[in-house]
């Protein structure tokens, strides 16, 4: 009985995996109906499912799978051509199989399902009967003929010819109705579909593609078995290299160098070896292993400490060996839990395809960073939130082709999924080029739903308002569709992501699109980190944020750390590096060390550099990132914790959080910027905008009313004074600020080689210059969005940031009060 | 709130411990283990009642100073004794409640249960679900979920509105 359950369990897992692949295959086939490899794989998957369920006695499942398989075989044999109707029917088959499998999973039996409509549809399509629309028949008939004449059919014939001898094997000639018996010996091997009379060609095709790419090459197996000569195999390989599309096995058989039975045997062996190389393991078991390894690491560390004092050679070497083995074991076990995010994404093409059809939208799904690895547990946890966001985007975000074309966009909307590692975290972005989120609509809805009061909604900035979609009880769908209006809102997405220690952020530009940014920790991931000391506690700083280490000896100190506006800075190779004292941030007393040397850790946060003063720098270590409990996870300074070699817990510093709290980046309110950015808008719609280009081609806009003159300077007249570039200008000295670096770009234009365009602006009582690469345009009537601290404009269909000259001067430390020294 | 103060209907076993003058008890089924003398890593900027983080066999758990959380007044000499970790399971989380000393496991009858005494003041009023009248002493039952959630019921409502 148990054994039966086990077989069924295995069958379910295999089917689920197969169905996921099948989904992808079918979606791919819609785009590339002629892809034979995909067709073959799709056929094989369905065939295996059919075979296995016949064996297990699931007759309904078998009927559905069988009809689907029939239709697929006609596609594969190029009798039919893939079209929308067929794709729908086949995807419907996948869904039907899934629903039956779910019932089997729950109850152990098939239960009652009514799939007669689907079966009838599959049969109708397979028999190529008149579709409801008369011309559809004609089209498909024409397509069928044109395909018949195409050269691809020849290769099919070849394949059939190659497979012909196998048809004489007893098991293959069994009629269709005897499928259960046919399949029995092979039911557990997904790679080995049984042959049948209706589809004689498949054997040669699926076995062969593996032959050339598999590490166990078919030629090698044949030689090992003594069924073929090494030289013949090599010749065949050369022929293949010269453009012969046949497989090694086929070439050998047709040249009479090997018996087809031997080739067949070798192919079976090859398949067996590739399926033997992986096994399924219960995640619970991996978790237990993981914990045990954690314990082992601690025991190892204690042992190493104990052996430190001893002189016993044998003891020391044993401890060292244990040390190495433990490290490797730890690494190995960790890796077993990592999976590429592509595993979750692979379900999305089908979701997008179905929804796009339902809403008559055209959507192209693009993916970047499929290989980004995440812990298995996290992959599971983000699956639903991710799907939900994608559904929402397709439903609300991307417009219909008519609307898109009407506003000059490509009819086809683009949905981009991106994943990448950053600072010990994984960022997942879901970007669309759709309508964006209309803040006013959200405001209205939020008030209507009672999420916020009218007054509050009016007082909120657009950015804040957009965040309201994450509030419980919020759904903005104009009509409640069966997609996004299922009672599951974005609040659930947020809760689920936060539960695993992540965060969701949304950025939207009305008319241009929306980006959801999910940040999740790499829980259980090992990251390299710098361990630093503050008093008796150790803190870990993720190595990715680390730029360099600077040590200031006591003598240097006074003239090296200076203050600008009361903020400490350090001159690092001529650039002013803002300094943050970690003790300060942790609420501790200033450091009273034996010597007065200062250790500065130079860190990078969001394009900004800053120096962090720490007591001591310890070492770099690989640490295991663990999430913080909910009682402490909201503290911005820490992103997680780790267990050190001696078993003590250390906190991992969140470099971005640190920068934000200490005012380095403007995230969450820059102290300096906040006082400046009152609730006045930087620019109104009726003001003109000067468009300039920066070093890397980025365009930004400047309010024209703040511009005094436009100038062009050759590099030879730009001099340096007080660590900043200056020019002699109209009898005085004008300071220049490179706009690019001051707004966080990596390159500036003041490279001492090229001519520089300079925008002269009022700066207090004086003037100062903004250096840019090019002055490109003046827009008289710009479309302005956003508030004072993030103003943007739409110019020529593109979104550009609008920058405030005063703010740039301020952030680069140029003070208005103090006149820039004149002669 | 998930933990509405409903009176118990069955005999339950409580794991009891002391903080200052108070005797408290938590259902033994919630208590995972009791540990002594663990090294605690302090977390700067955490709430005052957070003692720090502990290593629970490879898992990191938050240690909450239960005395501080309940705002129990303690004499100085007991203060030093704050080193017994009662590790409890709360929703999806394992948390250590740090107490002064551990006591017996007691069987308590529903008949002895009563709502918290009216005389109780401050935050303890929200965090104590009820009390069992033992001979000579009251055994208080803290609301673990609320204690672990760190914000009081009042601030919860404020968030919801």
Q: Can you offer a commentary on this structure?
A:
The complex is a heterodimer of chains A (823) and B (161). By secondary structure, chain A is of the alpha+beta class. Chain A has 29 helices and 30 strands. In chain A, α3 packs antiparallel against α4. The C terminus of chain A is likely disordered. Chain B starts with 11 loop residues before the first strand and ends with a helix. The N terminus and C terminus of chain B are likely disordered. Chain B is built from five helices and eleven strands. Classes of the chains: A alpha+beta (823), B alpha+beta (161). Chains A and B meet through α14, β17 and β18 of A and β4 and β5 of B.
Summarize this structure as a short list of keywords or feature phrases:
heterodimer, A: 823 residues, alpha+beta, six-stranded mixed sheet, globular, B: 161 residues, five-stranded mixed sheet, 5 helices, disordered N terminus
* Count of distinct strands of chain A: 30
Helical percentage of chain B? 10-25%
* Radius of gyration computed on alpha carbons of chain B: 15 Å
Oligomer: heterodimer
Structural shape of chain A: globular
Low-confidence stretches of chain A: 130-215, 476-487, 666-682, 817-823
Our count of helices of chain B gives 5
Low-confidence stretches of chain B: 1-5, 152-161
| Residue share in β-strands of chain A | 15-25%
Q: Which overall shape of chain B is indicated by the principal axes computed on the Cα atoms? A: globular
Beta content of chain B comes to 35-45%
Distance linking N and C termini of chain A: 98 Å
Helix and strand topology:
The complex is a heterodimer of chains A (823) and B (161).
Chain A: H1 2-31, H2 36-56, H3 59-76, H4 84-107, H5 116-126, H6 134-149, H7 152-163, H8 179-183, H9 204-213, H10 218-225, H11 230-241, H12 248-254, H13 260-276, H14 283-307, H15 313-336, E1 338-340, H16 342-345, H17 348-358, E2 363-368, E3 373-375, H18 376-397, H19 401-406, E4 413-422, E5 425-432, H20 439-448, H21 454-459, H22 462-467, H23 490-499, E6 503-509, E7 513-521, E8 526-534, E9 537-542, E10 546-552, H24 557-560, E11 561-564, E12 567-572, E13 575-581, H25 582-586, E14 598-605, E15 608-614, E16 616-624, E17 638-643, E18 649-653, H26 655-661, H27 671-676, E19 689-693, E20 699-703, E21 707-713, E22 719-721, E23 724-729, E24 732-738, H28 739-742, E25 756-763, E26 766-772, E27 774-779, E28 783-785, E29 792-795, E30 798-802, H29 805-811
Parallel strand pairs in A: 2-4, 9-18, 13-15, 20-30, 24-26
Antiparallel strand pairs in A: 1-3, 4-5, 5-7, 6-7, 8-9, 8-16, 10-14, 11-12, 12-13, 14-15, 17-18, 19-20, 19-27, 21-25, 22-23, 23-24, 25-26, 28-29, 29-30
Helix pairs in contact in A: 1-2, 1-4, 2-3, 3-4, 3-5, 4-5, 9-13, 10-13, 14-15, 17-18, 18-23
Chain B: E1 12-19, E2 22-27, E3 31-36, E4 50-56, E5 59-65, H1 66-69, H2 76-79, E6 84-90, E7 93-99, E8 101-108, E9 113-114, H3 123-127, E10 128-134, E11 137-142, H4 144-149, H5 153-160
Parallel strand pairs in B: 2-11, 5-7
Antiparallel strand pairs in B: 1-2, 1-8, 3-6, 4-5, 6-7, 9-10, 10-11
């Amino acid at each position: 009985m148990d054994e039966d359950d086990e077989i069924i369990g295995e069958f379910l897992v295999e089917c689920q995996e197969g169905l996921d692949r099948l989904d992808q295959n079918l979606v791919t086939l819609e785009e590339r109906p002629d892809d034979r490899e995909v067709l073959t794989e799709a056929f094989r998957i369905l065939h295996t499912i059919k075979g296995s369920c016949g064996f297990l006695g699931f007759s309904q499942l078998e009927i559905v799978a069988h009809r689907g398989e029939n239709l697929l075989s006609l596609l594969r044999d190029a009798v039919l051509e893939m079209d929308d109707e067929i794709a729908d029917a086949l995807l419907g088959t996948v869904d039907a199989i899934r629903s039956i499998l779910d019932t089997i999973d729950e109850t152990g039996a098939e239960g009652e399902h009514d799939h007669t409509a689907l079966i009838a549809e599959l049969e109708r399509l397979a028999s190529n009967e008149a579709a409801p629309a008369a011309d559809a028949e004609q089209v498909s008939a024409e397509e069928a003929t044109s395909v018949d004449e195409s050269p691809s059919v020849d290769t099919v014939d070849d394949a059939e010819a190659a497979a012909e001898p196998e048809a004489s094997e007893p098991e293959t000639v069994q009629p269709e109705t005897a499928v259960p018996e046919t399949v029995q010996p092979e039911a557990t091997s997904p790679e080995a579909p049984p042959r049948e009379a209706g589809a004689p060609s498949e054997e040669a095709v699926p076995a062969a593609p593996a032959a050339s790419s598999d590490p166990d090459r078919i030629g090698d197996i044949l030689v090992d078995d003594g069924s073929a000569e090494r030289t013949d195999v090599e010749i065949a390989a050369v022929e293949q290299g010269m453009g012969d599309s046949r497989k090694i096995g086929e070439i050998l058989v047709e040249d009479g160098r090997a018996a087809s039975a031997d080739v067949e045997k070798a192919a079976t062996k090859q398949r067996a070896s590739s399926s033997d190389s992986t096994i399924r393991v219960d995640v619970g078991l991996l978790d237990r292993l993981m914990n045990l390894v954690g314990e082992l690491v601690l025991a190892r560390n204690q042992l190493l400490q104990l052996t430190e004092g001893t002189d016993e050679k044998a003891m020391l070497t044993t401890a060292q060996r244990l040390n190495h083995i433990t490290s490797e074991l730890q690494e190995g076990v960790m890796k077993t839990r990592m999976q590429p995010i592509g595993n979750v994404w692979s379900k999305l093409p089908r979701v997008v395809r179905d929804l796009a059809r339902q809403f008559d939208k055209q959507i192209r799904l693009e993916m970047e960073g499929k290989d980004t690895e995440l812990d298995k547990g996290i992959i599971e946890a983000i699956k639903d939130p991710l799907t939900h966001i994608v559904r929402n985007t397709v439903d609300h975000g991307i417009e219909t082709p008519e609307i898109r074309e009407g506003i000059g966009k490509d009819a086809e909307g683009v949905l981009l999924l991106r994943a990448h590692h950053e600072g010990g975290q994984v960022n997942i972005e879901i970007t669309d080029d759709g309508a964006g989120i209309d803040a006013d609509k959200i405001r209205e809805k939020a008030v209507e739903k009672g999420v916020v009061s009218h007054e509050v909604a009016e007082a909120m900035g657009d950015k804040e308002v957009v965040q309201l979609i994450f509030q419980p009880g919020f759904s903005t769908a104009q009509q409640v569709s069966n997609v996004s209006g299922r009672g599951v809102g974005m609040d659930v997405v947020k809760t689920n992501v936060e539960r695993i220690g992540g965060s969701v952020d949304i950025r939207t530009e009305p008319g241009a699109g929306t980006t959801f940014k999910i940040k999740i920790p790499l829980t259980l991931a090992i990251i390299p980190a710098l361990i630093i000391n503050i008093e008796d506690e150790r803190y870990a700083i993720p190595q990715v944020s680390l730029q360099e280490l600077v040590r200031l000896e006591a003598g240097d100190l006074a003239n090296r750390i200076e203050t600008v506006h009361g903020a400490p800075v350090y001159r690092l190779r001529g650039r002013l590096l803002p300094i943050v004292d970690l003790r300060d941030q942790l609420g501790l007393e200033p450091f009273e060390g034996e010597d007065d040397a200062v250790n500065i850790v130079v860190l990078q946060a969001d394009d900004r550099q800053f120096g962090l003063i720490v007591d001591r720098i310890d070492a770099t270590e690989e640490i295991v990132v663990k999430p913080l409990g909910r009682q402490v996870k909201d503290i911005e300074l820490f992103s997680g914790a780790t267990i050190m070699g001696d078993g003590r817990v250390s906190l991992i510093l969140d470099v971005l959080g640190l920068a934000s709290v200490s005012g380095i980046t403007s995230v969450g309110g820059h102290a300096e910027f906040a006082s400046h950015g009152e609730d006045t808008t930087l620019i109104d719609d009726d003001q003109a905008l000067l468009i300039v280009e920066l070093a890397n081609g980025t365009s930004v806009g400047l309010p024209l009313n703040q511009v005094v003159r436009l100038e062009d300077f050759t590099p030879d007249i730009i001099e340096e004074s007080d660590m900043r570039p200056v020019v002699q200008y109209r009898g005085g000295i004008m300071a220049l600020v490179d706009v690019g670096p001051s707004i966080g770009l990596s390159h500036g234009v003041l490279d001492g080689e090229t001519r520089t365009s300079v925008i002269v602006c009022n700066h207090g009582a004086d003037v100062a210059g903004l250096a840019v690469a090019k002055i490109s345009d003046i827009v008289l009537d710009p479309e302005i969005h956003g508030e004072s601290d993030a103003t943007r404009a739409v110019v020529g269909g593109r979104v550009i940031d609008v920058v405030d000259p005063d703010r740039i001067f301020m952030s680069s430390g140029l003070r208005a009060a103090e006149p820039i020294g004149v002669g | 709130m998930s933990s509405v103060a409903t009176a118990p209907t069955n005999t339950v076993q409580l794991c009891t411990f002391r903080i200052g003058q108070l005797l408290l008890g938590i259902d033994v089924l919630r208590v995972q283990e009791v540990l002594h003398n663990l090294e605690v890593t302090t977390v700067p900027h955490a709430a005052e009642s957070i003692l720090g983080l502990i290593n629970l066999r490879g898992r990191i758990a938050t240690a909450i100073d239960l005395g501080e959380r309940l705002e129990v007044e303690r004499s100085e000499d007991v203060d030093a004794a704050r080193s017994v970790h009662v590790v409890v399971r709360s929703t999806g989380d394992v948390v250590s409640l740090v107490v002064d000393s551990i006591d017996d496991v007691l069987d308590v009858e529903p008949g002895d249960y009563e709502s918290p005494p009216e005389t109780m003041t401050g935050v303890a009023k929200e965090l104590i679900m009820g009390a069992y009248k033992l001979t000579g002493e009251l055994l208080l039952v803290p609301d673990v979920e609320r204690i672990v959630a760190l914000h009081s019921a009042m601030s919860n409502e404020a968030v919801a509105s």
